[in-house]
Design brief:
- By secondary structure, the chain is mainly alpha-helical.
- The protein has a domain of about 45 residues.
- Helices cover about 65% and strands about 5% of the residues.
- It is built from five helices and two strands, in the order αααββαα.
- The N and C termini lie far apart (about 60 Å).
Length: about 120
């Protein structure tokens, strides 16, 4: 395509009109159009208990593959032996940040001492 500064006024006007028309067309097609669910899915939702739906959604989220670092992985699982211990220890975010900051400060001091040697 040629330089934009070399376009004539008529060409610029045509491009602006084309842009406005495309924008108007996209707005009319983007309006919400309800989509009907298939009858089987609708019946399953209507007849299922909310608890079972929540359980199914949780199970689906856990079993779904995730994309991390350029590869597909399954979500990591927590060892059942440690679940009860993990539930006992609830840590606030500020405590966690303070602990990480303290560790980083220690590493920084150690690195500075190592470079001086």
């Amino acid at each position: 395509m040629s330089d934009i500064n070399e376009l004539s006024k008529e060409t610029v006007q045509e491009l602006l009109q084309l842009y406005k028309q495309l924008k108007r067309d996209s707005q009319t097609t983007d309006q919400f159009k309800p989509i009907e669910l298939p009858k089987e899915i609708h019946d399953d939702i209507e007849n299922a208990l909310s608890i079972s739906i929540k359980q199914n959604l949780k199970r689906f989220a856990k079993a779904t593959l995730q994309y991390h670092g350029g590869r597909w992985t399954q979500p990591e699982a927590i060892n059942a032996v440690f679940k009860s211990k993990l539930k006992k220890h609830q840590v606030e975010a500020s405590e966690m940040v303070a602990a990480i900051h303290k560790g980083a400060e220690w590493i920084r001091t150690t690195a500075r001492a190592a470079t001086e040697i």
